[in-house]
Structure formats: structure tokens, C-alpha cells
Write a structure and sequence with these properties.
Blueprint lengths: L1 H23 L21 E6 L3 E7 L9 E5 L2 E8 L19 E8 L10 E5 L2 E7 L15
Antiparallel strand pairs: 1-2, 2-7, 3-4, 4-5, 6-7
Length: 151
């Protein structure tokens, strides 16, 4: 099957060239000011979402944020986190970098929640690079105990 091997070789070469191009031109294909390239499968900040009987919690791993520009908004069952991640060396010229793996700039991330929350009781704390958002569930979303009559 020489044809299959040829296609595998070409595909391998293409992937290697893409990798080299992204290392040589880290900002190629991105809009200026955009936080992560549109091709990236990951989103920022990385989050864990979990709940208990009364609240939903969003833990966002977000070190190095400018907390003055950090904003959390909630509409129905969607929470949106937006802000700006600061450059660690703002005076460094792009050509001075040997490796740049930590992106910086503006970001927006919206997360759909499993149920509606009470928008007026949401709280957010940022400590040690982790943003913890506590979203109390809406009264109508809380489980109700219904008594069963025996008849």
C-alpha cells in the first residue's frame, strides 16, 4: 500500500510545518488584541462547574488577571466572565521572545448553567489566581418536597 504511506507522510509533513509556523509566527492568524487564536480548541479561563442543593459554583483558573477590568455577568442560566490578562513583560519586543506560550490580552467566556439562578444573589471572589463564582439557584429551580397522602 504505497499510496497510503505517501498520504500519511504528506499529512505528517503538513502537521510539522503548521507547528513550526505557529512557533515562528505566534500571532499569525489572530486579530490584534484577541486573546487566543480562533483555531484553538481550548477556551480561557479553564473552568470547573459543580453544584449542591442550593447553588452552582464556577471555578475559573485565571492567574494574572487585571482585576480592575474583570467582569462577571449573569443572565438567566448563562454566566459570562470577561476581562484582561496582563502581559508579564509589557516592554519586551515580540522579536525578543524565544518562546511565548502564555497568551495575554482581552477575553470573554460564557458558560451555560444547568439551571436558572437568582441573579441578585450571585457573588464572586478572586484569590490566588482562581475566580470562584457562587450562583444560588432560583427558587423555582430548587427541589420541593411533596407529601404523599395515603388514602
Amino acid at each position: 500500500m504505497p499510496t497510503l504511506n505517501l498520504f500519511q507522510e504528506v499529512e505528517s509533513l503538513r502537521r510539522e510545518m503548521d507547528r513550526m509556523a505557529s512557533e515562528l509566527f505566534p500571532f499569525h492568524g489572530r486579530r490584534r488584541g484577541a486573546f487566543l487564536p480562533g483555531r484553538a480548541a481550548r477556551q480561557y479561563p479553564l473552568v470547573n462547574v459543580y453544584d449542591d442543593e442550593k447553588s452552582i459554583y464556577v471555578e475559573a483558573l485565571a492567574p494574572g488577571l487585571n482585576t480592575e477590568n474583570l467582569e462577571v455577568t449573569v443572565v438567566h442560566n448563562t454566566v459570562t466572565i470577561s476581562g484582561e490578562k496582563l502581559h508579564t513583560a509589557p516592554d519586551a519586543r515580540p522579536e525578543a521572545y524565544h518562546r511565548s506560550e502564555r497568551a495575554a490580552g482581552r477575553f470573554v467566556r460564557s458558560i451555560e448553567l444547568p439551571t436558572e439562578v437568582d441573579e441578585n444573589k450571585v457573588s464572586a471572589d478572586y484569590r490566588n489566581g482562581i475566580l470562584l463564582i457562587t450562583l444560588p439557584k432560583a427558587e423555582k429551580a430548587l427541589p420541593r418536597r411533596i407529601s404523599v397522602r395515603v388514602g
